[in-house]
Amino acid sequence: MKDYNFLLDRDKAEEFLNQHSAEIFGNEAKIKINELKRSNTYNPEAFNILYDLQVGKSQLHMRASTSQVFSKEHDYNVMLYLREHGFSEGDFTIPSALAFLREENLLFYENLRGERLSDFLAKGYLEIESEIKGCAALAKKFHLVEKPTFGLFDSALFFRNFRFNEVNAKFPQAQDLGKIVQEIMCNLPQANQTFCHGDFNPNNILLDNGKISLIDFGLTTIFHKEVDLASFLTHLRLMLGRESDHFANLKDAFLKEYGAFDEKILQMLMILIDIRLLEISIIFQDAHYDSDFLYNSLQSDLGKLNNGS
Question: Cα 252–255–259 angle (5° rounding)?
């Protein structure tokens, strides 16, 4: 397992960036790190570090991203592709990829201005219907992008390798979640799959004076577009917590703005993501997810599916 902690040491990281300046910045300008900060993540195997740099005579805010599990070349290819297909300017953008160093599995990209939608919610900002509608329009634009020909994340891995024993230890009254996952996966149709972000949620959406940016492309895949809608809504509900009436209104606004989708597929995928978030809440306590709230949300979604509503 590679040790990426050198990226958090200013002197060592600065030395590394100078050694690879031509690959990353296109020239051999002198690199100086003014400041660095690791972004919070519940996964200790992932690194995402923000650097405030002096590149020659220019200032640059850059992020370095790597993983002990996944290749970041996937993210790099997706970012290049999206920038070429309508996400380089306008109201909906993504970061510009600078370089991918294959040997180190390091992705470098420009940091975008803006505040995460999740941070808005954490501060208690609830009057965000226009922002929620903007997120729906962003999802729709993403889903209209032509499917790329290069390899993407395998969507079959989305809902595998659950640690049900740990979930059942906390919630012994839970149904057979393994059987529920298997039944839903068997009932999902194979047709009508499209280009999907795969992790479309308020943590990966930046707001900046009416502009909306999308980040984190590690799970970008070909799957049902409803997976992005389900991810956004389950995360939004969790972040709103007990504001159930407000969530209902924002959910309606989001889906109305998005347009046509398959309600049953959405319901099934919300249940699968409920289970995944419930698992995360128990295993990764640093995520600060309310497991009791998630368990109740799962029961509610299962009830709606079973009642056909």
Answer: 135
214, amino acid identity:
L
3-state secondary structure labels for all residues of the chain: CCCCHHHHCHHHHHHHHHHCHHHHHCCCCCEEEEEEEECCCCCCCEEEEEEEEEECCEEEEEEEEEECCCCCHHHHHHHHHHHCCCCCCCCEECCCEEEEECCCCEEEEECCCCEEHHHHHHCCCCCCHHHHHHHHHHHHHHHCCCCCCCCCECHHHCCCCCCHHHHHHHCCCCCCHHHHHHHHHHHCCCCCCEEECCCCCHHHEEEECCEEEECCCCCCEEECCHHHHHHHHHHHHHHHCCCHHHHHHHHHHHHHHHCCCCHHHHHHHHHHHHHHHHHHHHHCHHHCCCHHHHHHHHHHHHHHHHHCC
CB 271 within 8 A of CB 162: no
| Residue 280, phi then psi, degrees to nearest 5 | -60, -40
Tell me the per-residue pLDDT of 80-112, one tens digit each, with 9 for 90 and over: 999 999 999 999 999 999 999 999 999 999 999
Confidence band, pLDDT 50/70/90 cuts, at residue 309 = low
pTM score: 0.95
For residue 276, give both structure tokens: 């995944």
Domains and their CATH numbers in the chain: 5-110 (3.30.200), 115-307 (3.90.1200.10)
CB 44 within 8 A of CB 67: no
